[in-house]
Amino acid sequence: MYDPTVARLTYRALLGRRRALILCALPVLLIVISAAVRSFAGADDQVASDLLGGFALATMVPIIGVIAGTGAIGPEIDDGSVVYLLAKPVKRPTIIFTKLIVAIAVTMAFSALPTFIAGMILNGNGQQVAVAYTVAALVASIAYAALFLLLGTVTRHAVVFGLVYALVWEALFGSLVSGARTLSVQQWALAVGHKVTGGDLVTSDVGLPTATVLLVVVTVLATWYAGQRLRSLTLAGEE
Amino acid sequence: MAVEQSLTPRGEQTRIHDIGYRHYDGPRLGRAYARRSLYSQSLRGSYGLGRSVKSKVLPMLLFVVMCVPALIMVAVAVATKAKALPVDYTRYAVIMQAVIGLYVASQGPQSVSRDLRFKTVPLYFSRPIETVDYVRAKYAALASALFVLTAAPLIVLYVGALLAKLDFADQTKGFGQGLVSVALLSLLFAGIGLVISSVTPRRGFGIAAVIAALTISYGAVSTVQAIAFEQSSSSAVPWLGLFSPITLIDGVQTAFLGATSAFPGGEGPSSGQGVVYLVVVLGLIAGSYGLLMRRYRKVGL
Fold it and tell me: Membrane-spanning residues where (chain A) (predicted)?
């Protein structure tokens, strides 16, 4: 199910050249802000929770997920070079699975790790805030990567639709309509983070069983359907 | 043939062969015409006009999403005979900033990245246009497209307010202030979007980079502002707003256009700080124009 060559090529496409710059810029910004906040406000659990929840988990993780998830397959389909990959005797679900693993690894490395470091800088893991948000970021990375990888196989405007989901649905509707929060990867991840630490600072609107089931279902379904999409992929010309 | 050749003047004998194409001897429309065409084509392209149906979907969808809340507000105001609109003219763009950001991110790269990727830029410059014409046409086109996007809901609100028989002078003043603010916003966002997307020939990457620049900076600024406000150091709040495009616009309109700030606690900048905001906004617009000129000085040639 895992093809090392496909993985190596995907890593190179994701981390090559300028793409790595934007992936690095966000974590660096988070850590700089955390250091600045710590030096201004001192260690405060509520502040740490606000910053990690509002900036790291709500903004940074989805955007890294969009870049890594769609970037793992989107550009190849876009410029047509995916035919050379599809022409090889590798099963298409295997290709998707390998690309998913790579996308998850990249998203985790660039979102969960900085979240943990930022949490340690902010309040030295007081009340388990840093660990809770790191776990949430890890869980969210998996679901986001699977979701956005699927988008990459479905539409040429994957980045836009991914961002629409991440920014408009989760941030805008999520803050206005409470029902939208049930269908939000961010809240599912928060539910897991809440359970892991059991603290009061990290809360979610979704119960743990619902969240876990939905996370697993979304990830598996998205991966399966992406494999199906790739099996019947037709290369459209430039619009 | 031989006779003809001997009759031609000496200078033209160097020609290898004349295969008899007719020369163009109609009117030459010149540089201004080419620039106008590039402008109108880019502007139409920003809404998918003259392009495939697929590429019409997203800009039109965003345009509709932008206008629908205004329609709903107007309908509510008319039905309930409200004394004022639920939202100020100047506040509307700040509320809908996610949609505006998505529009810039999707149409900025569409406007310039594809020219780079398919190497059509040299073809533009084989026409009688110069770098400055290309940059101005593209910049003006994206700024106009953004202005259409942001001004349309304001017009809806204004017409609705007049239909609801709200005070004419008051509404007209607010409408004018709103138009100035969205004009500034259009110029600023178009500049930032074009500078970022002119660096990369890949459309998807351009989209991500533009949205990251707009959203991440806003996310970072608003988070830090909220923390500064909670830590009761409210004096720092207006200065922090200098670091993201939408808070810059918010600050300028709070200081000069009678808007209420969306900053935490409504801690908008004073008039003195407002001058700094205005200088930064104008500097960013001029800076992005300068960067674009630099970028296209010798692109693809």
Answer: 20-41, 53-74, 95-118, 130-151, 158-180, 206-226
Domain contains A238:
no
Q: What digits encode the pLDDT tens for the residues B246-282?
A: 999 998 988 888 888 888 777 778 888 889 999 999 9
Flag whether A236 is in a domain: no
Query: How confident is the model over B146-195, as pLDDT tens digits?
Result: 999 999 999 999 999 988 888 889 899 999 999 999 999 999 999 999 99
Domain that holds residue A210: 4-231
For A163, which of B102, B223, B226 is closest by C-beta distance?
B102
Measure the CA–CA gap between B141 and B97, rounded to whole angstroms: 20
Measured between beta carbons, the chain A residues lying within 8 angstroms of B106 are 157, 160
Q: What is the 3-state secondary structure (H, E, C) of B258-273?
A: CCCCCCHHHCCCCHHH
pLDDT at B1 over 70: no
The answer to whether residue A237 is domain-embedded is no
Quote the number of domains for chain A: 1
Q: What distance in Å separates residue B28's CA from the closest CA in chain A? A: 32
Identify the CA nearest to A159 among candidates B218, B63, B215, B50.
B215
Residue B2 has pLDDT above 60, yes or no: no
Query: If you average pLDDT over each of B73-87, B121-135, B177-191, which comes out highest?
Result: B177-191
pTM of the model: 0.82
Instruction: Specify if A92 maps to a domain.
Output: yes
- Chain A contact present for B52, CB below 8 A: yes
